[in-house]
From TrEMBL:
Pfam families: Radical_SAM (PF04055). This is Putative DNA modification/repair radical SAM protein. The keyword Secreted does not apply. Keywords: Iron, Iron-sulfur, Metal-binding, S-adenosyl-L-methionine.
Length: 417
């Protein structure tokens, strides 16, 4: 490998990290250095932009330790057989970059992943050393997200959780068949075993902290995972069911979806075209329905096309579900429980909260709903108020044409030149 300076390595390894979507920084413990000790904070407003639950934008240095890899996963641009320019940071170089960028007010934290070099244990040791040095040698109190390696020694993965705010263990593909076909060197059982161990460690450390204040924090922002969408034959229904299982079994904070992107010198087993990015967006919306709107996985799956198993691209999953189950509508906004109000297309959780609060004092009319929502036109066919009942709209066979958004221009490519 030719000798590269740090700037050249950064150019290569920051670009190689762009395919990893799971870099949100929400949910971690609050820390700062206002007491004059250490450096950094997880509280300030922030090179990757992540958003906390309160809307703060936090900038993360998002890089790979190396894009060299001993594995040959078909879908990965950094696979062993890929003809790409390689680079590798030392652990100390990543530490120095993180501190230098923070002091220039460029970032608030670090997102670190890596290809596998020498062995999973060796690579995991290097990743952990970066986090250890930042925390212990430099008292860095900013956000750290580490991508862990399920094949590494469990003790190394545990050490990652002691230093990081969040850890990720990627399941890679939605189905066991897809993983075996496109990443035969990876073991789905070992991946799930590592996620199970991480969940147990997070729970055990949480219990210890309730009893002993001096107990160390362990991955306070939890663990997440990522699935590649469109590289195999998995349908949206398969992906939704898989995500639900992962949430239930391993207590994940997030499941991220990354649309497959064709890579140079691709294997013949891969599709020639990438899936539409709107598919990725619809999966995130379906994920939101399960996490915040009380939808069961089978309800979201019911919104998919019965023949293809795919979510419609022209309308969002909640609207697709409502159009399939029109017998549940219209809903009386003055009487319906919260769970049914959540199922009305066009109503978000904040709008539902406002409706529940307002109807304690008066009977709501259509004008009231218009003031509480962004678009009453989308809501109107599905609700009943004191002065509105959508008799004609509800009986129309082409109701989707009335409530679906207008066709947009061609979708832009995320990484197009």
């Amino acid at each position: 490998m030719a000798q590269l300076d740090v700037r050249q390595k950064l150019e290569i390894l920051a670009d190689a990290a762009k395919y990893d979507a799971s870099c949100a920084s929400s949910g971690t413990a609050k820390r700062n250095s206002k007491d004059g000790k250490g450096i950094g904070s997880t509280e300030g407003m922030g090179i990757c932009h992540a958003y906390a639950p309160d809307g703060r934008c936090i900038s993360l240095l998002k890089i790979l330790l190396t894009n060299s890899c001993i594995f040959d996963c078909h879908y990965c641009i950094n696979r062993k057989s890929s003809n790409v320019r390689r680079a590798r940071f030392t652990a100390q170089e990543v530490v120095n970059l993180t501190l230098s960028f923070y002091r220039r007010n460029y970032i608030e934290g670090l997102f670190l992943s890596s290809g596998i070099i020498r062995s999973p244990d060796y690579t995991m040791e290097q990743i952990v050393e970066v986090a250890r040095s930042l925390r212990e040698d430099h008292q860095f109190r900013g956000y750290i997200h580490l991508k862990t390696i399920p094949d590494a020694d469990p003790e190394l993965v545990r050490l990652a959780g002691l230093h990081a705010d969040r850890v990720s263990i990627n399941v890679e593909l939605p189905t066991a068949g897809g993983l075996k076909r496109l990443a035969p060197e990876k073991d789905g059982a070992r991946i799930e075993g590592a996620m199970r161990d991480m969940k147990r460690a997070i729970i055990d450390t949480g219990d210890a902290r309730q009893r002993y204040r001096s107990a160390p924090r362990f991955a306070p922002a939890g663990q997440s995972t990522q699935m590649i969408v469109g590289a195999d034959a998995a349908t949206d229904g398969d992906i939704v069911a898989r995500a639900s299982t992962l949430y239930d079994r391993f207590g994940l904070r997030r499941v991220y979806y990354s649309a497959f992107s064709p890579i140079p010198d691709a294997s013949t087993v891969l599709p020639l075209q990438r899936p539409p990015l709107m598919r990725e967006h619809r999966l995130y919306q379906s994920d939101w329905l399960m996490r915040f709107y009380g939808f069961q996985p089978q309800e979201v799956v019911a919104a998919t096309d019965a023949t293809t198993g795919m979510l419609p691209l022209d309308i969002d999953p909640k609207l697709a579900w409502a159009l399939k189950f029109r017998d549940r509508f219209p809903v009386d906004v003055n009487r319906a429980p919260r769970e049914m109000l959540w199922r009305i297309p066009g109503l978000g959780t904040k709008a539902v909260a406002r409706i529940l609060s307002a109807r304690r004092w008066r009977r709501l009319r259509l004008d009231d709903i218009a003031r509480l929502t962004v678009s009453v036109a989308k809501v109107r066919p599905f609700i009943v108020t004191d002065d509105w009942r959508p008799v004609l709209l509800a009986d129309r066979g082409d109701i989707s044409a009335l409530v679906a958004p207008k066709a947009a221009t061609r979708q832009l490519e995320l990484f197009a030149a």
